[in-house]
Specification:
CATH class of one domain: Alpha Beta
Helix content: 25-40%
CATH topology of one domain: Aminopeptidase
Largest sheet: 8 strands, mixed
Strand order of the largest sheet: 1-2-3-4-5-6-8-7
Radius of gyration: 16 Å
Oligomer: single chain
Number of helices: 6
CATH architecture of one domain: 3-Layer(aba) Sandwich
CATH superfamily of one domain: Gcn5-related N-acetyltransferase (GNAT)
Distance between the termini: 22 Å
Strand content: 25-35%
Amino acid sequence: MNLSLPPSPVKTSRLTLRPFVSSDFDAYATYHALSLVYQYLYCDPPAGDALKQQFSDLLNADFNKDGDVFTLAVTRDDDGAVLGEVLIKLSSINASQGEVGYIFNPTFAGQGYATEAVRAMVDLGFDHFEFHRIFARLDAKNGGSVGVVERLGFRREAHLIENDCFNGQWGDEFIYAQLRAEWQSK
């Protein structure tokens, strides 16, 4: 595995994925304050100092041990708008596995931005970080996220029944994954 940070930015046909900078806070706070965004994350949206601390932690994150997360802001090339974020979590150095994740402002939904950005992050995970396997954990009710990983050819490996509880409500989870050899053969 290669744990060095990749060169920035990462470009797609319509997007730029780059590290967050302090001036991105307002855009970040806009979508992180939405309960709609957090309905599938099993926690309440952060507010006030907690939101500021979360953003500060993101700006100063390490990526060298299990559990560390590498996050990039997703910006639209046409106008520079911050649409959301994509991340890869270092799940296991020993097993060479990463977990891909993404959060987008719902204002920009339905235009293929999430699929395009996640594809670029998975490319980075396999090509730069040299993961053997990348997986995604999704709330089973989150049809938008399920669509993203299925469009990218991830296979559903598990359906966990009532494996998490938030505000007294049990939720199911899907695990989707792809191996590097599978990704590169497409």
